[in-house]
Amino acid sequence: MIIKKIILHFLLCLFGLQQITAQVQAKVFTADIIVYGGTSAAVTACVQATKMGKTVIMVSPDQHLGGLSSGGLGFTDTGNKEVIGGLAREFYHRIFLHYQADSAWKWQKKEEYGNKGQGTPAIDGADRTMWIFEPHVAEQVMESFVKENALVVHRNEWLERKRGVIKKRGKIISIKTVSGKLYKGKVFIDATYEGDLMAAAGVSYHVGREANSIYGETWNGVQNNVFQHGHNFAKPIDPYIVPGQISSGLLPGVASSTPGVRGQGDDKLQAYCFRMCLTNNPDNRITFPKPDRYNPMDYELLVRVFESGWKELFDKYDPVPNRKTDTNNHGPFSTDFIGMNYGYPEASYAERKKIIKDHENYQKGLMYFMAQDPRVPKVFQDKLNTWGLSKDEFQDNDNWPHQLYIREARRMVSSLVMTENEVLGKREVPKPIGMGSYSLDSHNVQRYVTDQGFVQNEGDIGVKAPKPYSIGYDAIVPKENQCSNLLVPVCLSSSHIAYGSVRMEPVFMILGESAATAASVAIDRGITVQRVPYDNLAELLLAQKQRLN
Questions:
Q1: What integer pLDDT is reported at residue 365 of this predicted model?
Q2: Which of 179, 209, 175, 178 is nearest to 190 (CA)?
Q3: ∠ at Cα 527 (524, 528), nearest 5°?
């Protein structure tokens, strides 16, 4: 018995010593504002916090800053550019300045560039903005913001999601990363695509599509037999491995479950993809590589799409400067890996890594299949083989985008939920802090077998907003009783279908800037973020040349 007590005492002392040692070794960093994330919203938030005289640390899980803006989405979803102000507009102005130099046009003469944009010309000389760009140029602009404002950026720091958020009396005191670093601040901003800090702080959120009945909407929930972008199977196509034989099983990517009833909610997500930067310049082109995991059967459905007469393969090779593209999903079977992302928002880091790798293998495999498989029509295959990955993009990642397009993950549920009613101008938005203008836009959510026995996609929505709309302040702050010093400008409080419009990169930049402004006011006044006086906030935002209404 005595020996057992001695051993127990020794172990307790050893454990205590280890705890003390761990505390000594832990690195503690303190700032007025802690921004978690490396997205475009994270960058604008940090810049604005600095401009307002606050100390700020960006705690970025990413090595590369800018999220999708520097990750391949160079054909900007602009909408109405007149409602893009503040630092977001400064970003596009700096893009313009970059391409004014002859040296920027290495692979193409400026006059040969077609100036095609999305909702606006690519280059607006009168406005001195440019809305279309190469990925590495966007990253350079992001890094110029960092350098000019002497931003403190800690890269490759991942939030300890289970026990890394310390709260007292409804306020976040500190966050801890997996590496053991501790960050203390007065106000925190979650600028991630996933909303990890928001979730770890105990804030309410939603994943998936709400039923239309929840917020009085029309375009939320299941939308079977609604095809607004043309990303559907226009002709009957057999979904079975052996055509006509149900017993042979379904082709890869086709769900065995039914899609659900029109308008009902589910926990499914619109599909993700990588926005590839391709080129048809032989001097800057890399042949499409074979992925680590490759199975030609994964693309059997595409063969049947070609056999049905589909000819739109190159319709979303949107041009960016220097003979490159921002290549997006297009058609019934394309780069969107439909149905394979449902678990992503709540997945562990290891599980997310696997999901991302699965998307990479699928999309690389798709390009390799079309470039190599003899069943692909020669007219398409020959043209495709004039394209390849851009040699001078994503050079530290085998020329593959470093950011998967997380079109939607968690969405906060706060006192104000942006819905299609606000986006479509049916309801006034209180306390505006920025504006959006893009359509209600959802990519496909699921692929299933119809009652007639053919394959079909579901979830493709595109409803034009009649005019630009405001985004309310209360949509980026949690309910006060859940967390009083957190702002969420990316995974903001929105229904699935409204988020389809809000989720554009210019809007994230706008909301990141507005969030940092509000955070600074809260610090100056010693109040919660929910109690920031709107008149004061609006005055500051207008002085920053933000557009509010």
A1: 98
A2: 175
A3: 125
C-alpha pair distances (Å), 154 with each of 29, 182, 286, 465: 10, 12, 33, 39
Q: Pick from 329, 396, 389: which is nearest to 364 by CA?
A: 389
With left for phi above 0 and alpha for psi between -120 and 50, is residue 118 left, alpha or beta? beta
- Cα 503 from Cα 40, distance rounded (Å): 12
Cβ proximity of 379 and 312 under 8 Å: no
Distance CA(513)–CA(242), nearest Å, equals: 54
Cβ proximity of 28 and 184 under 8 Å: yes
pTM: 0.94
Supply the DSSP symbol for 207: E
The SS3 of residue 462 is: strand
How far is C-alpha 385 from the chain's CA centre?
29
pLDDT 10s digits, 442-472 = 999 999 999 999 999 999 999 999 999 999 9
Tokens 């009396």 appear where?
169
The answer to whether 42 touches 379, Cβ cutoff 8 Å, is no
Helix H or strand E segment including 380: helix 378-384
Residue type, 372: Q
Residue type, 130: M
Backbone angles phi, psi at 495, to 5 degrees: -75, 165
Q: How far apart are CA 62 and CA 402, in angstroms?
A: 9
Longest dimension (CA), the chain: 89
Q: What single letter denotes the amino acid at residue 417?
A: V
